[in-house]
Amino acid sequence: MADPICRWRNPFIRNVIELINVLPKNELPQQNARDFVIANFPHNAKFYTTPYQLACQLGLYHESNGRYFPKFKYNPNENEVFDYLENWIIHYSVPNPYTRNFDNLPPISIHSELSRRLLANNRPVNWIDTTTDIFNIKIGNEDILRNSINYYSPILIILDGMVQLKEGKTYDELAEYIDVDILRDRDDREYFFDLFPLPLNKEGGLTNPDETVEIKLDTLVLTQIKEMPNLSETEKKQIISARIGQGIFRRNLIIDCGYCPITGVDDTNLLIASHIKPWRTANNEERISHKNGILLTPTYDKLFDKGMISFTNAKELIISNSISEQNRQRLNIVAGTIYDSFPLLGREEFLDFHRSEIFIE
């Protein structure tokens, strides 16, 4: 017997909010985040026994190479959590990085597979028999999975042991829930984490007040990306998130080089993930490659983005003649300064482009 979802408590709204509330809302070194959770998890319970597993299965946080990354960087209300979990149940894939067993099974969206079988039969199907057939074994914690589907599925409900349509739904409506984006490699934690984006992005989605003009110029490219048939929805979201220095682009950049090479600031909440070769001119691979990125504090990020500073492949700072000597002093920058900690490896070609196409002499 194997469990498609762990048993701590049912992932009802109040329990999910409890997990979100105890998790740090900022990117942190992994151990710092764990110390915070251990100190704040209520009732003297041990978070890193079972609750953490559910939090990961829900996509609420992600740990990679000694760093912690939260999904929610704010305290959401119940409606926001419900919207998040409605999307979660549709795309939740088993096996995934946080399940055990299912070793010979490729990842499956349980909700999608139930929808497919319900549509094929055009009548209710037996819950236990169907899940046993899907997984080739009798699953554990079926009540946790059943309650999750009943609570969050926009179309399915399990009553009296039968999977059926929710009131007012039709069998034809099942079609949109069958071909959905799911995990393809059970061990891919990055992709699993990105399967469940925040609803209506609390931080504004693609709207970045400091880059309004540039985003308007990108509208055509964004549309083209959304219509690319060879990309999954998660891959499209990863590329679009990279436009504003978020998602997998930022996470991998932090893991590779979690500091500003000019100032030495290593609190990543104070740093901006900036593309070296601009997003609008990069191809899709370059857009999400952390080697096409650098973390800078806001002032230096703006200078770099506007081509007023750049770096040589010898890690030397070069400064545009448009910056006066007086302002160079105010900015504490000196042309020719070598920043030994600059993460050069793998960024040489991108810097060549930045110097030739973006930098202003």
Brief summary of the model shown:
The chain has helices at residues 13-22, 30-40, 51-57, 78-91, 110-121, 127-135, 142-152, 189-194, 212-217, 219-226, 233-243, 247-256, 284-288, 298-305, 325-331, 348-358, and strands at residues 28-29, 61-64, 67-70, 93-94, 108-109, 125-126, 156-159, 162-165, 272-275, 293-296, 309-311, 317-319. The protein has 361 residues and is of the alpha+beta class.
Secondary structure: elements and pairs:
Elements: H1 13-22, E1 28-29, H2 30-40, H3 51-57, E2 61-64, E3 67-70, H4 78-91, E4 93-94, E5 108-109, H5 110-121, E6 125-126, H6 127-135, H7 142-152, E7 156-159, E8 162-165, H8 189-194, H9 212-217, H10 219-226, H11 233-243, H12 247-256, E9 272-275, H13 284-288, E10 293-296, H14 298-305, E11 309-311, E12 317-319, H15 325-331, H16 348-358
Antiparallel strand pairs: 1-3, 2-3, 4-5, 6-8, 7-8, 9-10, 11-12
